[in-house]
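[Automated response] Your request has been received and processed.

Submitted sequence:
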Amino acid sequence: MDEFKNWVERRFVIEALQAKRAPELWQEVRSALQDACDSFNERYGSATDQVECALENCRRVRITRKLLEDHSRNRHSKIVTTIVVSFDENSQKITAAQNSANIFSISSDGISVFITRKDKRLEPDEVSKEILESFLFN
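Generated structure:
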């Protein structure tokens, strides 16, 4: 049986829980992104291929990949690609923007708060994978 008197009470509890927990979930995603970038540099990076994950402010992370290509003995070109991942506390969304935007929603069922994308619940590490996998390995 529902413990709430009505739907307004239920909505209030869900929104309060979500507002409290959403910034914590964002920090978990931010940490997962940083850890993945550090692991990439340790396991796959080289002097010519490095990823930098920089916290621009408490709600935005810039991930930059610098790839130095050797075209001949004396000529090199640098390819720089960037993803900006941001958290909007008002809309409770995490957006990863490179060529197009991937949007993840923070939702609640009144008991827990979680991240979703296309109606699928995701852990922070899974969000990191969805954002970074093609960026790092394609």
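Summary generated for your ticket: Residues 7-43 form the longest helix (37 residues). The chain is about 35% helix and 40% strand.
If you did not submit this request, please reply to this message.
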